[in-house]
Amino acid sequence: MSSSSSVFGFYATADCLRMVWLNDSAASSDYSKLEIVTGPPDFRFLLDDIPHFIDYLPASLKAYSNPLHNHSAYSEIEQYFVDVDDVVAQNIIVEKKTQRGRYFRLAGPRQKVVFEPDEVHACIVTCGGLCPGLNTVIREIVWGLHHMYGVHKIVGIEGGYKGFYTKNTIQLTPKFVNNIHKRGGTILGTSRGGHSTSKIVDSIQEKGINQIYILGGDGTQKGAAAIYEEIRKRGLKVSIVGIPKTIDNDIPVIDKSFGFDTAVQEAQRAIDAAHVEAESNENGIGLVKLMGRNSGFIAMHASLASRDVDCCLIPESPFYLEGKGGLFEYIEHCLEEQGHMVIVIAEGAGQELISKNTNQLDASGNKLHEDVGSWISQQINDYFKEKRKLPINLKYIDPTYMIRAVPSIASDNIFCTLLAHSAIHGAMAGYTGFTVGPVNGKHAYIPFHQITERQNKVEITDRMWARLLSSTNQPTFLKSGQVGVDQNNNTSQETS
Q1: Do the beta carbons of residue 71 and residue 61 sit within 8 Å?
Q2: Annotated binding-site residue? 15
Q3: pLDDT at 98 (0 to 100)
Q4: Which residue from 445, 428, 416, 418 is spatially nearest to 107, judged by alpha carbons?
Q5: Which of 35, 117, 268, 324 has a 20 to 30 Å separation from 291 between CA atoms?
Q6: DSSP label of 15
Q7: CA-CA distance, 185 to 247, in Å (whole number)?
Q8: Is 193 within any annotated ligand binding site?
Q9: Could you tell me which of 439, 419, 448 has the C-alpha nearest to residue 490?
Q10: Among residues 30, 248, 261, 412, which one is catalytic?
Q11: Cβ atoms within 10 Å of 269's Cβ, excluding its own
Q12: Are 283 and 390 in contact (CB under 8 A)?
């Protein structure tokens, strides 16, 4: 083990650790690795580690005392610094016979850093769709770098990944970003897909940038992984850090993504309006379409929080319209029992019933969906008019872009601050090629491949979905044999 390794405390002592490099394609593509850590007899765990500059830069890489040692807010709090061997468990509930679990590095400031403040030239870029909290994360990265670490060279890239080589940069100072968290959207602009990794890295070298903070969803994080690989091939001291962003909350491993709480709260306004409309009209039906391309978390949580929803339809739980146990029969039952009904449907639900362009993709590589809200509105109207001869009053509300564009609420603002600070601490310490997020309540550093290989989905065999069914009193709409437990998808959002 090199002397530089011990300087950084990057590896544990030789008697309790050995390194195993992964050979599978997913892991080797982004240089991730597993460390098998052993301790007391019969105890060991897998550390799903992230890259560090020491992995590919010369052993002469210098380490410096963390500036926070001299910071008035932190210098007296020794516990503020994270031990290099502190880890976070991916799963906190395990079988009795389990001897090995998977862990990630705990996020937070280290005793040593690899950047001096004057050396840092940081940049921030936002990609993909809008999400509440984007401006808050931008603000907190700028403020954190400036006020915690004394970094003064920070720029924003305009227009997403393409902005690295097609547009100008914006100088970001604490004064400039001071109030941006009060606005929705992103002050840097955004775009989807269509970028050149080599051109981006060329621009990074030309501008002298050495810390890059990338805000975006799974497609954006795949792009970040590709940028990291090119950076590593060129042997550059440039830290690539991802901050996962998706309003759908469909990024795996992490507890939730920023903006989700805001989206659920804002969705309540649409549901409340739908309930008022439905309750005020004879045989009134209020239909609300919410975000959820492949995952129904917003629809499920908003329905549970509302208490006014009679039916929630999500992509993970198939449904059918006609026949015994179908949606039409349940709508008729609700109208007979209470005279009105509120339906919430996620944008990706029911696509198998209507989708025609199954192979078409958007700029981010996502499958294009039909407008299920308009389609199901027409189906319900036609059924009750033509087959049941029952007059109904259906009001359809689609608040999608209103929800995406609002500023984040208090809980998300705090969450965004923690994400930004975790990202900064990791970059300053020399980690790279990783994303940040809460895992079982603790912020951790996660390899890119862990959040890009699959999507987080609602488990319809989980108790959270059972609570939803109990709250709405809706049927499952499932036929025999349709429910199966995905043993590889450990993504339950609530298990107690």
Answers
A1: no
A2: no
A3: 67
A4: 445
A5: 324
A6: G
A7: 12
A8: yes
A9: 439
A10: 248
A11: 15
A12: yes
- What is the C-alpha separation between 344 and 310, in angstroms, rounded? 8
220 is known to lie in a ligand binding site: yes
| Total Cβ atoms within 10 A of residue 202 | 15
This prediction has a pTM of 0.87
Whether residue 149 is annotated as binding a ligand: the answer is no
State yes or no: 255 annotated in a binding site.
no
* Tens of pLDDT, residues 419-456: 999 999 999 999 999 999 999 999 999 999 999 888 99
DSSP calls for 319-369: --SSSTTSHHHHHHHHHHHHSEEEEEEETTTTHHHH---TT-B-TTSPBP-
Is the Cβ–Cβ distance between 327 and 311 less than 8 Å? yes
248 in active site: yes
The closest of 186, 182, 190, 181 to 143, measured between CA atoms, is 181
Give the Cβ contact number of residue 116 at 10 Å. 14
Cβ distance 460 to 299 under 8 Å?
Answer: no
Contacts of 62 (CB under 8 A, 6+ apart): 114
Residues 87/104, Cβ–Cβ less than 8 Å: yes
